[in-house]
Known about the structure:
The protein has helices at about 20-25, 25-30, 80-90, 105-110, 120-130, 150-155, 185-195, 215-225, 245-250, 285-295, 300-310, 315-340, 375-385, 410-425; strands at about 115, 140, 160-165, 165-170, 180, 200-205, 230-235, 260-265, 280, 360, 390-395, 405. By secondary structure, it is α/β, with parallel strands linked by helices. The strands form three sheets. A seven-stranded mixed sheet has the order 1-9-8-7-6-2-3, sandwiched between helices. A three-stranded antiparallel sheet has the order 10-12-11. Strands 4-5 form a two-stranded antiparallel sheet. Helix 5 crosses helix 6, helix 12 runs parallel beside helix 14 (about 410-425) and helix 13 (about 375-385) crosses helix 14 (about 410-425). The protein is globular, with a radius of gyration of 23 Å. The chain starts with 19 loop residues before the first helix and ends with a helix. The relative contact order is 0.12. The site of pyridoxal-5'-phosphate has 12 residues, from helix 5. Pyridoxal-5'-phosphate (PLP) binds near residues 147, 237, 265, 273 and 278. Its cofactor is pyridoxal 5'-phosphate. Its EC number is 2.6.1.9. Keywords: Amino-acid biosynthesis, Aminotransferase, Histidine biosynthesis, Pyridoxal phosphate, Transferase.
Amino acid sequence: MPILGLSPSQKPVYPAHFDVEKVIRPNILALQPYRCARDDYSEGILLDANENSLGHSIEGQVEGVQDALELNLHRYPDPSHPLIKQRIATLRGLRPESSSSDATSDAETGADHVFLGVGSDEVIDLLMRVSVTPGGSEKILITPPTYGMYSVCAQVNDVGVVRVPLELRGDNGEGGEKGRFSVRVDEIKKAVVADPSIKLIFLCSPGNPTGTLIPLSTIRSLLEFPDFRGIVVVDEAYIDFVDDPLTQSAASLVKQYANVCVLQTLSKSFGLAAIRLGIALAQPPLIQILTNTKAPYNISTPTAALALSALSPASLSTMQAKCQTMKSYRSQLLASFAELGKANLGIGRSIGGNDANFVMIPILDSKTGEPSSARANKVYKALAEEHGVVVRYRGNEPGCAGCLRVTVGTEEENKAVLEKLVEVLRIIS
Ligand SMILES: Cc1ncc(COP(=O)(O)O)c(C=O)c1O
């Protein structure tokens, strides 16, 4: 059955073992998408969508949002936002090389490789809804410790979860840099062979909470594995905090592989968590399926206006400069934690790859010197309740015993968290 809305001019699919129509639930493939009022005509006297013809009723300035009142707020938003998608495609290397500067069609601009969601959280949910049949018989695979929404979303969708924990390399004598989490590729391969009902593999790169970038060779190895017929989802919420994101991102695999879907977001490096703009990058068939399934006007007009501005050349330079600054603060913070580690207060060496905008710091038992989740939890609470510094307790996550996850803040915030932590560690043993 052809995917509704997809142009037939598709290149041969690589890898050959992947057939998107076998992954997608039959009811989704058969779906007749909701047609928006604006799908056919978007200009003229617009009396088609039961909007308020007298306009919005906001009086005065909207706090903090310039020109908000000129955004045609009484009209439904554009259902597809091609300009935003074009800018994202260009930023992430998905605009075809042959594309001319006056190209407009989605295929010419690369916009057909981009889907927009209400945060990447919506895209995670949509991916499960389109591909994994609820009822527990079909599953996703995750690699704990990882972002919590994959399993929450699986539960909401009544979808099974197979867990293949990451490995803390160096702890098992395999060599590698101590403390860097790594994906157990062979274990994942075994798991998908043992259970062909696994439709999606979720990888998080750089990981939350591990902060570790996954090498592209690891991702390729799963994409090429002929016994896995599903989709490898690579969540790159933190990708702009790595060095040279364009070459390290799995977005660079999208043109070649039909079975990869890369998630990104404006919530982290762009500093726009409030606007809720998440991104999926994949080949057009999967993008078309997500588009057919989404709610018609999922991206609001204010969000779209802010996102478009955030993707202008000037804003992108600012975003990249801020990421550089964050990375230098991250190094300073790590160095300060390492110094504190020598002061016998009970701070261990940071774990994980430190490739994102946070660090993972183990709190140690003052007697044994081993990571102590009990002490870390007390420290976490004291920091928040007595000192107004809120970090994240991650001690319950596999491989993260005693860990606090600390977001890299401003220089003042980083100074404050270090000072307060010392105060708290002196009191809580
Ligand atoms: C790995 C990861 N993916 C996705 C998200 C959610 O992103 P969004 O704000 O785009 O929904 C987060 C947020 O913390 C995250 O850590």
